[in-house]
Amino acid sequence: MLFEQPNKPMRFLTAFSHSQDIKVAIQTILAQTGSYKPAAMLCYYTESYCAQELANELTSRLPNVPFIGCSSCKGIMTDKGYHEGPVVGVLFIYDQSACAYGSALVNLDACDDYPKLINNLIEDALKDADRIGEIPSLILLHATPGYEELYMDAIDEKFGTHIPIIGGSAADNKIQNHWSLITDKGISQNGIALQLFFTSKPLTTGFSAGYSPTTFKGEITLAKERTIFEIDGLPAKDVYKQWINDHAGENISEQYIFDHIARFPIGVMAGTIHQQPYFKLTHPLCFHPDGWIEVFAEMQTGEEIQLMTGSLDQLISRASRVVKEANIQNYHESLVCGAIIIHCAGSMLRLGDEIQQVYQKLISQMNGQPFICPFTFGEQGRFIGGENAHGNLMISSVIFYDSE
User: Fold this and answer.
1) Which segments constitute the FIST C-domain domain (predicted)?
2) 3-state class (DSSP) for residue 232
3) Are residues 184 and 55 in the same domain?
4) Alpha-carbon span 14 to 37, nearest angstrom
5) What is the SS3 assignment for 306?
6) How far is 306 from 13, CA to CA, in rounded Å?
7) Which of 77, 143, 234, 248 is a good FRET partner for 164, with 20 to 30 A between their CA atoms?
8) Domain that holds residue 252
9) How far, in Å, CA of 59 to CA of 65, rounded?
10) Domain boundary among 281, 309, 337
11) Number of structural domains found in the chain
12) What is the spatial order of strands in the sheet that 40-45 belongs to?
């Protein structure tokens, strides 16, 4: 199918393959795309694929096309379904000549100046897009887990305004550092990749937790980076476990059970809309014998946190709800033409086979238009209040529209 249409030049297409032979996989994917060269690409894949070989093959087959992607936990989702791994999937973006896309990649080994590094990374991407000194419509950010908050702060500082950011931290299947990033500039297992979008069509973004606060809350009385040492002056692990026991009557063993990640996250109020609070989430990565909790997002001493909870029904509905909420910002009721959706891996794992219901709700909300969705170990997005943030167990989305 050819996608060049004079009145509707911006178009999206997804394709995927389960072949573990990378040359065969990319050939299968490209066979579904027609003859037009894309303006940009996104590529997501499970951990069994060699990132370097994948990047090399995409660069060889589609030279001078900027692309970005990362490894995804156990599978990916597109408008064609939920695809359990091994799988590699690509979103192709076709756009007018007036548009621009630029990618950049940096390794973090021995880095001690994140603002300078991000500044150089953005300058590289702007140069790649031939848009030096301009403000992009959107930034797509992928990084290996670690210091995503610092990267986002540096991006905001660089541009001096809250440019919409969507992103997800690279994931593997079992939190064993088997994650990776790919771009047309190279690959990394410890780095940051971004792509700048200067699109020909309007877009809106959404970022939401979709969980409800319980009555259990407290103040972080000691924290550093991604470790909570104390809550209300007591060992953080003891307080967190007691909250879960009082709320749900369950005892969590000393060896943290991954299944609980999506059931009882920790919430920090990020703001309010119509007097109703909205939250940024994180979840424990592990418990320390001394009573500390290591989490997947930065926490601050003095922050108030709450135990959050979400039913399976909430988890099933929230991805389509985030898309719907983003679509509410579509004041001119333009037609949806494509989307990027970032879905937390922890929530996907808890859903199990119910992920099929998530797909059905998404495809209905998207009216069958193309989208791609990796499952990540951290999500970046723009809250309805305008601020960019990093969280866990979140859903982040960007929807592109045909203008009037």
Assistant:
1) 236-383
2) coil
3) yes
4) 14
5) strand
6) 41
7) 77
8) 212-309
9) 7
10) 309
11) 2
12) 11-17, 88-94, 40-45, 67-71, 181-183, 186-188
Question: Which residues are within 8 A (CB) of 234 and not within 5 positions of it... i.e. 6 or more apart?
Answer: none
Averaged pLDDT in 10-residue chunks for the chain of 404 residues: 49 96 96 86 97 97 96 97 97 88 90 84 95 94 89 88 90 93 96 94 83 91 93 94 88 62 82 72 84 88 91 78 68 77 89 91 89 94 78 87 71
Instruction: Indicate whether 128 and 187 sit together in one domain.
Output: yes
In a domain, 1, yes or no: no
| Same domain? 152 vs 238 | no
The residue out of 270, 286, 309 marking a domain boundary is 309
Q: What angle do CA 71, 339, 127 make, to 5 degrees?
A: 70
Other C-beta atoms lying within 10 Å of the C-beta of residue 185: 19
The type of residue at 381 is G
Distance separating alpha carbons of residues 70 and 4, to the nearest angstrom: 28
pLDDT for res 123: 95
- Can you tell me the distance from the alpha carbon of 123 to that of 120, in angstroms, rounded to the nearest whole number? 5
Residue 305 lies in a domain: yes
Q: For 403, what's the count of Cα atoms within 13 Å in the CB-facing half-sphere? A: 7
Q: How far is CA 66 from CA 26, 78, 182, 270, 393, in A?
A: 16, 20, 11, 34, 29
Neighbours of 367 (CB within 10 A): 9
Structure tokens at 236: 């953080």
Residues 180 and 82 in one domain: yes
Beta bridge partners of 207: 396
Residue 270, Cβ neighbours under 10 Å: how many?
18
Query: Can you read off the two tokens belonging to residue 286?
Result: 């592990």
Quick one: which of 112, 131, 123, 193 has its CA closest to 158? 123
Pairing mode, if any, of strands 181-183 and 212-224? unpaired
- Residue 55 CA to residue 315 CA, distance in Å, equals 33
Read off φ and ψ for residue 76, nearest 5 degrees. Answer: -140, 170
Identify which of 141, 136, 153, 139 has the alpha carbon closest to the alpha carbon of residue 192. 141
pTM above the 0.90 mark? no
Residues 228 and 193 in one domain: no
In a domain, 4, yes or no: no
